[in-house]
Sequence to fold (456 residues):
Amino acid sequence: MNTILQQQKNHHRQALRPPLAKGLPVLGNALDLAGDVGDFLRKKYLELGPVFRVRALNREMVVLAGREANLFFSKEGTKYFASRAVWQDFNAQLGISRSLINMDGPDHTKYRNQLKPGYSVAMLEQNLDQAVAIVRQEVATWSTIKPQPVFNLMQRIIIQQLGLLITNYSPHEYLDDLILFSRILTATTIGKQRPKFLTYLPAYQRAKARVFELARKVIATHSTELRGDRHPDLIDHLLQFVKQEPEFLSKQEDRINAAMTPFLAGVDTAASVTAFLLYSLLKHPDILEQATVEANALFANDTLTPDNLRKLDVLQRVTLETLRMYPIAPVLFRSVTVPFEFAGYRIEAGQRVLIAISLPHHLPEFYPNPFQFDIERYSKGREEHRQPGVFAPFGLGSHLCLGMNFAQALIPLNIATILHAVRLSMVPANYQLQIDPIPTPSPNKKFQIRVAEQLE
Ligand code: HEM
Fold:
């Protein structure tokens, strides 16, 4: 009797396994997952519903998708999911055991609270002039003749801003190293869109050694005593914490990693969004015109204040629409710690999961004409992004982007500074967006600009 019951139970469980997305023999869905993953998952969601399985070679993952999945993850995330297991390759590559992004539970909360002030928008607001000066210096080097790839131009700006604003150290000599290191590290360990052998290439090894050198220098220029002559930065907060609780981050590599994190977490993400934003403006001359008027008004006064920055309207809405339309973190990676049921299907402990956080960004029930770039969505009366569970460009739950407010203020400021300084031409003028999914989705290298007119 017991066996029959058990069999029935097993059968019942099997029936409740989420459906498997069709894929190629052997490869499964590997090619789709390494390409435009957001688009692929949206199509599968429409076909299979809010929970389904995908396969990449021998790895099988469960996808949770749609508004209900976002709401479930936001509410119950810490109960059923963990980050640690999915960062194993990343940790091994850096020789670390504890980092903010791979911790869970109370330790994560504690560490996050210690670092929070170092990632806050205040780090930008205290140094607005410096942030603007970096953009102006870079823009001054842009060619009027030779087109240059936009994503790379934005990476150069953001790296220097993160270095100076968040760690009080100029990473200027390390720009190319950071770009190469971050690209290969992310693609081989997190998204696994690229094979691991790339991490053995001498160019990668050299860039990695240089980035470690940068992080050591960043730490060495800070003492464990808070300095009175400036506001404490991220590294000051880190070192204070290490002093209070040396055993929390006992490995030297973990401290070095903490000094690298703003670059690894912030560069490609913020640079991708800024590049997508510039593309959107150059494709919509009417919005570009409104944004330029606003940018000129921002710089019409001699002093730039946080208050003026907060009052930007068009540029804030353009930023929101870019984050919606071109989400650069289409999925979160997690593993299941406690079995649970979702939408009638059972998900077992140990299962790798992809939470397709940005999938609702392109569903017409939440955003009418979802593929149309429309900044009126954010105007009073519409505010489509305020519907719970439908706008998640910065993640959800306990690991919600710690640089979110910083990035949301920095991106419009950078764009305003650029629009005030130069008029840009897109090259080729009829460029149609193609997305390079690595390291994070960004306009591909063919999206280039040159300076059409110097305005300052
Ligand atoms: C528009 C630009 C950005 C986007 C779209 C973005 C997106 C994200 C997302 C989706 C996560 C969650 C990852 C997860 O749950 O697995 C995250 C985490 C994080 N981000 Fe960002 N990010 C951006 C910019 C930045 C910047 C500029 C910084 C640094 C100044 C930063 C620092 C962090 C940190 C430290 C975490 C880890 C938080 C934790 O684990 O508790 N991000 N970001």
Summary: The pocket of protoporphyrin IX containing FE is lined by residues 100-101, 112, 119, 162, 166, 261-262, 265-266, 269-270, 273, 328-329, 332, 393-395, 399, 401-403, 406-407 (CB under 6 Å). The two ends are 85 Å apart (CA to CA). The chain has a mean pLDDT of 94. Residues 15-454 form a domain with the Cytochrome p450 fold (CATH 1.10.630.10).
